[in-house]
Design a protein that fits this description.
Blueprint (H helix, E strand, L loop, with lengths): L2 H5 L7 H5 L5 H13 L3 E5 L2 E4 L11 H5 L7 E2 L1 H7 L9 E6 L6 E3 L2 E7 L6 E2 L9 E2 L1 H10 L7 H9 L6 H11 L2 H13 L1 H4 L3 H9 L6 E2 L7 E4 L4 E4 L16
Parallel strand pairs: 4-6, 9-11
Antiparallel strand pairs: 1-2, 3-4, 5-6, 7-8, 10-11
Length: 255
């Protein structure tokens, strides 16, 4: 048996997969250590490994596959999910991993993997031919990114990503908004999509639902607003130059 070729079946593998190939755990451990020493496999973090590609000398697993198995419930989320869908212009070195179980951030192959608390099970998909990737669907990625606007990508980047999404399903977005049940999230989402309603093809009914559930509190859309504008309809302070932000070419986007 050639252990390397057996393990190539798994983008990411654990000791469990190695143990299944041997009659004793001691023999399996020795075989794995030999593979690591010969640089035919790499340790991702405690308990997780990937083979080294014979083609390019890099890890077989990509960052999306790694993120999908960090914990039993983990999945690709936020800005990294937008990257998976190809809606960003540049590759970030930060990988955002949603999970019900907390883990310590770690680095592997030049990427830093960050824990993001998973608050709902809905909206996580396993794309066909995705190599085991688990990722939030486009609509949940949008809602999650708006929810955590000040924590992860920031307004400019989120607007740029939303501009690149085709065929937004309003029903799905409303389901995720209801799941979070946050007046502020309804407020932020409704305001953003009202600003770009024509460009994104958003219905009046969607905006009305957001407006009906956003409460009466006056809030700031994001932190660090230098030139504020105010929307009386949404009771929200926002950057006046929002539509002119770098990368935020939603006005001219063809959706």
């Amino acid at each position: 048996m050639n252990l390397y070729y057996e393990l190539l079946r798994y983008p990411v593998f654990s000791v469990k997969e190695v143990n299944a190939l041997y009659s004793s755990e001691r023999t399996a451990r020795a075989a794995l250590e030999k593979l690591l020493k010969e640089k035919m496999a790499l340790k991702i973090r405690n308990g997780l490994y990937t083979c080294v590609s014979g083609e390019n000398g890099g890890p077989v697993a990509n960052r999306f596959q790694v993120a999908s198995v960090v914990t039993p419930s983990s999945y690709v989320s936020h800005h990294t999910a937008f990257e998976y869908y190809g809606t960003v212009d540049q590759v970030f070195r930060e990988v955002y991993v949603g999970s019900e179980t907390r883990f310590h951030d770690f680095e592997f192959d030049g990427y830093t993997y960050h824990f993001v608390k998973g608050h709902m099970k809905e909206g996580i998909v396993s794309p066909e031919f995705g190599g085991g990737v688990r990722v939030t669907d486009k609509e949940r990625t949008i809602i999650d990114s708006i929810k955590d606007l000040n924590l992860i990508a920031g307004l400019e980047e989120v607007l740029s990503c939303i501009a690149s999404v085709n065929g937004i399903d309003e029903t799905k977005m409303l389901n995720y908004l209801a799941g979070y049940d946050s007046a502020f999230l309804y407020q932020k989402t409704g305001f953003i999509f009202s600003e770009y309603q024509a460009e994104l093809g958003i219905s009046n009914d969607f905006l009305k639902t957001c407006n009906d559930r956003c409460g009466n509190s006056k809030r700031y859309l994001t932190n660090g607003i230098s030139e504020p504008g105010y929307s009386g309809e949404w009771k929200l302070v926002y950057p006046k130059n929002m539509k002119r932000m770098k990368n935020g070419g939603i006005e001219d986007a063809s959706i």
